[in-house]
Amino acid sequence: MDVLTRLAHFFAPLTHYVAYILAYLFESIFLVIFVTIVLVFMIYLFRKYMARVQLRIGPNRVGKFGLLQLMADGLKLAGKESILPKGRDDLPFRIAPLIVFIGLVMSFAILPYGDFYWIGSLTITHSNVSVILLFAAIAIMPIGEILAGVSSRNKYAILGALRGVAKDVSFEVPMMISVIALVMMASARTSEPLNLSDLVSSQIIPFGIPEVIGLLVFFISMIARASYSPFDMGESDSELVSGHSTEYSGMRFGMFYMGLFGSIFLSSMMVSLLYLGGYNGPFSSDAGFVYLLIKTVVLVLIAFTVWLSVPRIRIDRFVNMGWKYLLPISIINLIIAGIITLGVGL
Amino acid sequence: MIQEEQKNEHREWTELNMGPQHPSTHGVLRLKVKLDGETVKEVEPIIGYLHRNAEKICELDYYCDSLIYFDRMDYVAAMNMEVGYLEAAEKLLNIPPPERAQWIRVIMAELGRIAAHLVWAGAFGLDLGMLSPFFYCFVQREKILRIFTEICGSRQETNYMSIGGVYQDINENIIYMIEEFTKEFPDKLEEIFNAFVKNDIFMSRNKGIGILEPDVAIQYAVTGPMLRASGIEYDVRKAEPYLVYDKLNFDIPVSYKKDNLARFLVRFEEMRQSVRIVKQAIKKIPDGPYFNPKAKKSLMIRLRGEGEVYARTESPKGEFGVYLVGDGGVKPYRVRVRSPSLRNLSVIRHLGKDVLIADLIAISGTIDLVFGEVDR
Amino acid sequence: MVEVLEETTGKDGRKVLKVAKENLLALLSDLKDNGFTHLSLITGIDRKSKLEVVYHLHNLTKNEYVVVKTETLDERVPSATGLFKSADWDEREQYDLMGIVFEGHPNLKRLFLPDSWVGHPLRKNYDLSKVQYINMDENGDDYATFDPGDGW
Amino acid sequence: MIEVKEPKKELPLVGTLKAMWIVGKHIFQKPVTTQYPEERKPMPDRFRFRIFLSLDDCVGCTLCEQVCPNLSIHMNKVERENPRNKRKIYPDVNFGTCTVCRNCEEICPTDAIYLTHVFETSRTRNSFTYSPDELSLSEDEVIK
User: Are C113 and C144 contacting, i.e. CB atoms less than 8 angstroms apart?
Assistant: First the structure.
């Protein structure tokens, strides 16, 4: 029993089609609410964690422990004028932040979330090829960033967009190869290794243990995907002011900001799903979602620590690293995965 | 139109304006950069956005009043600026400070040097994208500023020294505070140092980048840590000792690697040496008056000076020189300040050729710019 | 050997060489060959009837210091940029604030103030009561006017 | 003269992890910031900000006006009986330009002008100038 079927049962007095349409509608609303809560939580967590690491207190004025600070900031951003630069390409400039945000929500829709006590399965999309779908969805966000960079007619923005392209090209190949290794490993246990739910469920031992190299490559690629330090060359604040989002203000900027934090959470969740067993846990399988959240938050904190302590890498060195180190390493990892799959049958 | 473009041989170069409002230009530096893709082909620094013409203001004021304008030149190391001005003014006015005042000044100058280098280290980390070490640097700096507040009542723009000595004597409590600071600071400094140099990416961003050859450095009149990182062992404190630096035991750090990392290491070693100086000075500080009675406080606007004096001191940024010309009146006839940052900045035209944008930022970070002093 | 008009020792114990402005470059290059490679400072002093230009030179290896002085009646002095690169900005600054024209300087523009600024502030006869306003043109360069314009 | 040595080279990634640990362990330390209006650190004894004036002691010598580097002090005519101040002029202070250099306190021959701990003196733009009467308020009155 998952959320969708429950909703459909709830609307069953109406006709079959209407019930399912309503069920999907409500599920999408739940999803957007979930993503919003995640974003608010992430930004609050980041600000508090950053403050404590830097010997400060962080937001503590609006609401208890500053919990309402994000509401205040959101209101402030929404109330601000969204300045449109003079030489912009109008339509791409306006839709670029939306593309980033939609890509984020879509990616969240594809992830499997596991069970949660009385609600049952929280997974939204049931597809045989959800791995491919997921990586297609997270590839949407860079399009928005590149559009933003090119359409705002700002030299910093164009440089940021160019850097973003160079970065994406150099890390996505190793990332995909390390995912292929996972699919190979999973294919020994399940008939549908491209289905994310099956891929996650087939981890009796988390894939991260035999696939340490893959985990490392994937984690690095995910940092680059979410583009925070050390791989934030695209919007490096001390070099390119703010990269592709230089010309944005108000709520449009807010969407890029949310996209950044959303993709940190998304990437941590993907690492925990693919490599750390996801919603598999030692005790009751009812608490799968809780296990997933715990693993994700730990990974998020590690990601924040990386962000706060490591300087930015230079773009040429990163491209070098992608092609000269990550790619060969991920191919070696693929071979190891093949040997394990054939020989050990893990 | 198209023909015109073809005539222009560098038509593919992008012109980019960095600053004056840019996150990593340390105030109001404006760099006109010509880019070929990501590579910087030409840099032209444009300065003057913080220009107040302090030299003219000093001409219009009494000798004792000019001090506060020197405070505001290198505003992160106000004590060193005061030492620099008073070296010149006291020679011109023939009012040497008593022994105790000289020792106090040495302690203050070295504490100021540590504070200035800490600000630089934190800001340099920010330039490279390290968010946290900035705060650890500033926490330590705040302890120094607390000592300054305890001594003279102001945090940054101290106005502590005056012609003929210092305004207020230091007492037991302050000596205790400074001793405590020198005890616990070296460990914290090592921690900050490790937070930087253990990082592989930090090392790769700095090693072999921005190499400044010694002959170029001399051509551009570069001084201070930048010159020493290029392998020239030169420090005004040793070459032309002022105050009581000749009675103190300390080393001048030199590096022969000439790159960004060398400048980074030299500055950190300087901080360690400054702690060493403070530790010695606080023990040796003699009793006696802290103010020369010749410069009576009620008569301080009546001081007259004649002649020409040039005094050099070693400020955190480099050789800080003050050239005072007096015509026998109560106000100086001409004040000329040799600001080290200005000369150090001019070398960016040489260093910023054929480097990446990211490296240009790193190089301008190691120059250690404070715009109050560059523009004056 | 270059003819030196007067050799004295200043109040701070530094050697001062006075030289006619025609012989200035010859003396500077002579000193540069003798190890005074570090041109620390160029100062212009407005003596009302004449302008005095002071060069502070420095020998880093021998740790010696020398001050070279020259005078000019027509605001013109030969430029030392061919000998010392640090003279570039120093001379621009002195041109900007003191109005000394350094002949042969490749890029003699104002260093601190905008190009359209009227007058040289460090001159003794500079009128401080006249207010000039700085505005920005379309290219982001500054210009100065006596008219406050819109921004004020 | 000592030559600075480059630090020992760490294994790739290991050094970065060490640096991350140095940063991450600060989370166990106490924050150093104070929440200003509620918490106040004790003021150092020598901390000075607001200028006060003792009208009875002021002799109207104008020394403070002369020594002020920013021309913040001007002498004002105040109708007040004071046998020591024949010209009946007293200083007023423009706090908009005052840099708290304490030169006026140093030079005052009768210690009439002095600085105190009071520092919460925010005002609107047009009322930065303190008249002699305002300057002569006592410290407790100002805090009120």
Answer: yes
The span from the CA of A12 to the CA of D100, in Å, is: 78
Asked if residues A228 and A307 have their Cβ atoms less than 8 Å apart, the reply is yes
Q: Which residues does chain A have within 8 Å of residue D33's beta carbon, measured at their own beta carbons? A: 55-57
Domain locations in chain A?
1-79, 83-344
Quote the CA–CA distance of B85 and B158 in Å, as a whole number: 14
Q: Which two tokens stand for residue A265?
A: 């959470």
B132/A53 CB distance under 8 A = yes
Looking at the structure, give the CATH architecture of the domain made up of residues B2-375.
Orthogonal Bundle (1.10)
Read off the pLDDT band of A1 (50, 70, 90). low
pLDDT at C76 (0 to 100): 85
Which amino acid appears at position D76 of this protein? N
Do B132 and A237 make contact, defined as CB atoms within 8 angstroms?
Answer: no
Type of residue numbered C28: L
Helix (H, G, I), strand (E, B) or coil at B111: helix
Buried b (16+ CB within 10 A) or exposed e, B186-223: eebbebbbbbbbbbbbbbebbeebbebebebbbbbbbb
Of D20, D27, D33, the CB nearest to A57: D33
Neighbours of chain A (3+ CB pairs under 8 A): B, D
DSSP annotation of D123:
-
Using CA atoms of B283, B289, B291, B295 in order, give the dihedral in degrees to the nearest 10. Answer: -150
Are β-strands C51-59 and C64-72 bridged in parallel, bridged antiparallel, or unpaired?
antiparallel
Interface of C with B in 12-71 (CB under 8 A): 12, 14, 37-41, 43, 45-46, 54, 56, 60, 63, 65, 67
Q: State how far the Cα of A183 lies from the Cα of A218, in Å rounded to an integer.
A: 14
Concatenating the DSSP letter of every residue in B75-96 gives TT-HHHHHHHHHHHHHHHHT-P
Contact: D106, B297; criterion CB under 8 Å: yes
In order of their start, the domains of chain C are 6-109 (3.30.460.80), 113-152 (no CATH)
- Per-position DSSP letters for B119-164, written without gaps between them: HHHHHHHHHHT--SHHHHHHHHHHHHHHHHHHHHS-SSS---EETT
Look up residue B25 and give its two tokens.
């230009």
In chain D, what residues touch B300 (CB-CB under 8 Å)?
67, 106-107
- pLDDT of B10 reads 54
B82/B105 Cα distance (integer angstroms): 9
Half-sphere exposure of residue B153: CA atoms within 13 angstroms, side-chain side: 21
3-state secondary structure of A278: coil
ipTM over 0.90: no
Distances (CA, A) of B123 to A179, B209, B361: 39, 18, 11
Instruction: Mark out the alpha helices in chain A (DSSP H runs).
Output: 3-10, 16-53, 69-79, 90-110, 130-138, 140-151, 155-187, 196-201, 212-226, 237-240, 250-274, 288-309, 315-320, 327-339
Q: Please give the model's pTM, rounded to 2 decimal places.
A: 0.89
Cα distance between residue C77 and residue A282, in whole Å: 86
Mean pLDDT on A170-181: 86
Instruction: Report the CATH number of the D50-143 domain.
Output: 3.30.70.3270
Which candidate, D67, D75, A307, A223, places its Cα nearest to that of B301? D67
Residue B288: alpha-carbon gap to chain centroid: 30
Question: Could you tell me the strand order of the sheet in which D89-94 lies?
Answer: D73-77, D89-94, D129-130
Tell me the pLDDT of chain C (152 aa) as tens digits.
677 777 777 777 788 888 888 888 888 888 888 888 888 888 888 888 888 888 888 888 888 888 888 888 888 888 888 888 888 888 888 888 888 888 888 888 888 888 888 888 888 888 888 888 887 777 777 788 777 766 54
Q: Does A13 touch chain B (CB under 8 A)?
A: no
